Amino acid sequence: MSHELDHTHDPALTSWVDSANDPATDFPIQNLPLGRFRRPGAKDWRIGMAIGTEILDLRQAGLIDTDDMNVLIGAGAAVRRTLRQIASSSLAAGSPRAAALRDAVLSQRGVELGLPCRIGDYTDFYTSLHHATSVGKQFRPDNPLLPNYKWVPIGYHGRASSIVPSGQSVRRPRGQSKDATEDAPRLGPTRRLDYELELGVIVAEPNPLGDPIPIEDAEGHLVGLALFNDWTARDVQAWEYQPLGPFLSKNFASTLSPWIVTLEALAPFRAPFRRSVDDPQPLPYLDSAANREAGAIDIALEAWLRTAAMRDAGLPAERLMQSNFRDSYWTIAQLVAHHTVGGCNLQAGDLFGSGTQSGPEPGQGGSLLELSIGGKHPLRLRNGETRTFLEDGDEVILRGHCERAGFRRIGFGECAGTILPAHADRRANA
Question: 11: burial class by Cβ within 10 Å (0-12, 13-18, 19+)?
Fold first, then answer.
């Protein structure tokens, strides 16, 4: 089980990689997330483990025999646990392998970090009750939640080809939108560009077409989590989403962080999953003793903004909000069980978006749509600027970490992207 603790979680464990012992690092030896990197001038991606500010090249270290992340994660949870245990022992302070492995350790700053695996199919869920309620109130004040929300893990199939790695800029999209005061829709750059603070859930072991995955086995088909920003054009979304849901408002870009924090690393931060007695309890296929005992995960999440003016003035990014994944209305095991209950076959490298992760308090909205209440209440930043939605030059940075007494703090790194201006209308030059 990915919930089990072993010597790799020992908070006293330190590494011969000095930067991993910094209390502020996201990547101590207790984490060891998986990702892909490319050396300068190289064409091919290699598989690494983050350790402090460094990367352990797993193939050069002799710990794996492939450079294909999808093959590695598709090999199953037992292979992943063994790799984690061997890597932990090899990187631990006093390891007899330290001298032999030093040449396999390189700086994260000296390489290109990409998507952590090849993304196959992508499904975005809607797991935050607080987000669904907050957004629903803006459109349906008297009935913010539709009747199926508390019974069904709501989701839609998204566009995998436009998922980009952290650090890649995002072009402001063009699309149709229509204001209530307009007689006809217009085509142009979105005027209500937004971020969505989400987690990405990475599928590992596949299932055959037609074979549902029972909730008891669901987490065995996952490798771990990453940070995910599902950029959204809110004005395009409002015009197009009925009757079939998101389309151009979502398919222009989504940003995924480079490191998969494995379920094994997250084991100390599991929490009970409980529904209010006033809510309907999950149907049997979405319920299990293990899910009730430890289906939730305590992950603190944050969204930060750095405007072009802040960069020009040498100012740091400003935190906009905080929330926690333990408040999600659905667990990752329930997402797998529901996604496959009809026989859908998942593949190694498939991605689930968690949906925007908002907290119960007004200032914990995981998007500007919530924080500005649909653009009616602009956010005032410390440098005097205001925002209702994102402007060109804005950089959004998502961060996440896990912290619990008796265990080492671990983190997810950053998921960042900067907004570029929309392409010019080529018809104007025709």
Answer: middle
